[in-house]
Amino acid sequence: MATQEVVTGPGVGTGTGVRPAPKPTLGNGPFGWLEQLAGMIMLTGQTIVSMFTPPYSWGPEFIEQSWLVVKRAFIPCMFCTAVFSWGAPGITGGSIIATLATTDRLGSFAIMASIRELATWINGMVVAGVAGTAICSDLGARKIRDELDALAVLGTDLIKSLIVPRFLALGLMTVVFNYWNTLISIVGQMVANMTVWKETAAGFVATFGSNFTIAEIVFNGLKVLTFGFIIAIVCCYKGMNAKGGSAGVGRAVNQAVVVAFSLIYVYNYLLNSLLLGAFPETATLR
């Protein structure tokens, strides 16, 4: 005759088959975001260490993930940048400059609007919303199917084989997209200024060149590189910690997008403050 297992210890109720009550954790309370933030920071450190530790077996997966980012994000980035550059800094921003009767400074305005803000922001938003969600859903599906646990049992280094290639792919391709997006943004704004505000191409280029600095382009590249790394860590962390079946994967993807957007906003503000503080000349339109 089979005997029933009696579990001792504090639990809910009494009698046979009672399991111990789960211990409360920070993640179950109102400050669960602190535990998740700490987990993302730890994952970042582990990824960086694993990235520089041989063997470097992540090459093929890195190429595959880079191509995934290109397929999913290239056209949306290009379309969104062209539309926003025409409407936001081109027409709306131009109307503000025209109100001040300084349409001859539209080229210098493009430095702040396109290089410093618009191109980088759209790049981060599109990559997070298209490529980041694809990565998060892929890892989340593997998690709920216990594929990640099976790989870990087989001795596979999940950080090196899964996180490092996605981390590098999102960081690199975000930078590549950024320079293409920046060019589209500048051209779109110039066309809007020429057709709507009757600014000449020569005047736009002249004022653009007088305000262009190396600091702007350096901070531009640094910003989007970090955007890619932030998106990669957030989406990989949420995907690898998904739970609750397919609905849990959907929640993880939604949370990943929200967290990535929020961190990008905060980081963008901090880096712009650093740029303006270190190079005060970038705060004026010359």
Task: Provide an overview of this structure.
The termini are far apart. By secondary structure, the protein is mostly helical. α2 packs parallel to α5 (158-196), α3 (106-144) runs antiparallel to α5 (158-196) and α3 packs across α6 (201-211). The radius of gyration is 24 Å and the shape is elongated. The longest helix is centred in the N-terminal third of the chain and has 41 residues, at 59-99. It has eight helices and no strands. The protein has one domain (58-283). Residues 1-26 have low confidence and may be disordered. Helix content is 76%, strand content 0%.
Tell me the layout of helices and strands:
Blueprint: H1 32-51, H2 59-99, H3 106-144, H4 147-153, H5 158-196, H6 201-211, H7 214-240, H8 245-278
Pfam families: MlaE
Organism: Paraconexibacter sp. AEG42_29
Keywords: Membrane, Transmembrane, Transmembrane helix
Residue share in helices?
over 70%
The number of distinct β-strands equals 0
Number of helices: 8
Report mean pLDDT, rounded to a whole number.
Answer: 83
User: End-to-end distance, in Å?
Assistant: 91 Å
Search tags:
286 residues; mainly alpha; 8 helices; elongated; membrane
Short summary:
76% of the residues lie in helices and 0% in strands. It contains 8 helices and no strands. Helix 2 (59-99) runs parallel beside helix 5, helix 3 (106-144) packs antiparallel against helix 5 (158-196) and helix 5 (158-196) packs across helix 7.
